[in-house]
Design goal:
It is a single chain. The chain has one domain. It has a 4-stranded antiparallel β-sheet, with helices on one face. Helices cover about 30% and strands about 25% of the residues. Strand 2 and strand 3 form a beta hairpin. By secondary structure, the protein is of the alpha+beta class. Helix 1 crosses helix 3.
């Protein structure tokens, strides 16, 4: 059984954090909306499959990037005026988390810490 990891992330300006492809980017209004978008992106393959379909050679995309964790948990809360803290618990490796975060909000986030859950 894979080990669960607890990722501690922060987003400096969620109101303006958007991924590079509008059709895939987060388009919510606050931390709760973002937590739900990230949870869906990790628990289902929907976001990955939409991204994969946009690639020149969809069949050549590494299938490991499409991994999901149906029991991933995500909490997001406002830490100060603009920064949002995100607590994520999942079995997914950082490469998958990074890919989904970048699709949703681009490079507008930071991994603060990671520990075994």
């Amino acid at each position: 059984m894979p080990l669960r990891n607890h990722y501690y992330l922060s987003i400096d300006d969620l109101a303006h954090a958007r991924g590079p492809v509008a059709e895939l980017a987060y388009d919510g209004a606050g931390p709760d909306d973002f937590a739900e978008a990230l949870r869906e992106a990790l628990q289902t393959s929907s976001l990955f499959e939409r991204w994969r379909a946009m690639q020149d050679e969809p069949d050549e995309v590494d299938p490991a990037l499409g991994a999901i964790d149906p029991v991933a948990t995500v909490r997001a809360s406002v830490d100060d005026v603009q920064r949002v803290d995100v607590d994520l618990v999942t079995v997914l490796p950082m490469s998958v988390v990074r890919h989904r975060m970048n699709l949703l909000i681009g490079a507008n986030w930071t991994l603060r810490d990671m520990r075994a859950a």
